[in-house]
UniProtKB/TrEMBL annotation:
InterPro entries: ABC_transporter_permease (IPR051393), MetI-like (IPR000515), MetI-like_sf (IPR035906). Belongs to the binding-protein-dependent transport system permease family. Residues 80-293 form the ABC transmembrane type-1 domain. It comes from Donghicola tyrosinivorans. This is Glucose/mannose transport system permease protein.
């Protein structure tokens, strides 16, 4: 760099800071919202998770007592176990089913627009509506069990919502019904960006389509899979309304989830400190998902 370039470089930086000022002014409300509401309230919650807050926030610090009590509570441990089982299975099935649906729709099927609308329609519903719909479907009196028994199979039994061993499977069916369509649409959009020459070359070489998908196409779709994974995982961590509408955590605590534990501790039991501690653990779990994803996605681009 010449001496002239060195003289010009500092003058360019202030211009960048003041360039397009209206766009920066328009972004101020969003920036303030993120700083005050999201970051500020999150820090406030973390700080008060170390206090003896009950009905009202308190400044009496008790160290890690809330966390010790939290991890010694059977209901919280059950909720963590449930979210781990549900999360792993839901994540795998969502990605697999979403990719299969996207691959099938990528074959230029007829009425593709109608199919896209149908598979994406459940995602437009709230989890409350989804929970109520599946509560009717799985109801033993007028749901699947009642319909099959009406056909003459009187011994048929299908009541997963009232069985502790199958209630998570029932929740999984409802969650997949709602969320798989979004994953399929994301992956379908990514599939449409795959170069046609890849398929032509695989056909010329006689490579089966399934091998092309596994060894060539799926690695190309890595960014789309990462985006879908983050969306699914963050949705699983904060799962609440589906649980309330479908099972309300029952039978017993067989379908209890961390988000429901937080709500009950803060509003039903009026124990803010315990709710703050549980919500802080949920925040940590979300950060454990987002930070590696951000490093994986943006760190590699910076190195490149």
């Amino acid at each position: 760099m010449s001496v002239t370039d060195h003289a010009r470089a500092p003058a360019r930086r202030p211009r960048r800071l003041i360039s397009n000022p209206m766009a920066k002014i328009a972004a101020l409300p969003m920036i303030m919202t993120a700083l005050v509401i999201f970051i500020g309230c999150s820090l406030w919650t973390v700080v008060h998770s170390f206090t003896k807050s009950k009905l009202l926030p308190s400044t009496q610090f008790v160290g890690f007592d809330q966390y010790e009590r939290l991890w010694g509570t059977r209901r919280w441990l059950a909720s963590v176990e449930n979210i781990a089982i549900y999360g792993v299975v839901a994540l795998v099935f969502s990605l697999v089913l979403g990719f299969v649906i996207a691959a099938l729709m990528d074959q230029k099927v007829r009425a593709e627009g109608a199919f896209r609308t149908i598979i994406l329609f459940p995602y437009s519903l709230s989890f409350i509506v989804t929970g109520l719909v599946w509560q009717w479907i799985l109801n033993p009196d007028f749901g699947v069990q009642g319909i099959v028994r009406g056909w003459g199979w009187e011994s048929f039994t299908f009541d997963p919502l009232h069985n502790p061993d199958t209630v998570l499977a029932a929740m999984l069916m409802a969650g997949l019904w709602q969320g798989t369509g979004l994953v399929a649409v994301i992956l379908l959009a990514a599939l449409r960006g795959v170069d046609e020459d890849i398929w032509k070359a695989s056909r010329v070489d006689g490579v089966p389509a399934w091998k092309t998908y596994i060894f060539v196409v799926i690695p190309i779709l890595r960014p789309a899979f990462m985006t879908a994974t983050v969306l699914i995982a963050t949705g699983i961590v904060k799962l609440y309304d589906l649980v309330v509408a479908l099972t309300n955590g029952g039978p017993g605590i067989a379908s209890e989830m961390p988000a429901k534990y937080v709500y009950d501790a803060m509003f039903n039991k009026q124990n803010l400190g315990q709710g703050f501690a549980a919500s802080t653990m949920m925040l940590v779990s979300v950060l454990l998902i987002l930070i590696p994803w951000a490093i994986f996605e943006f760190g590699g681009k910076k190195r490149g």
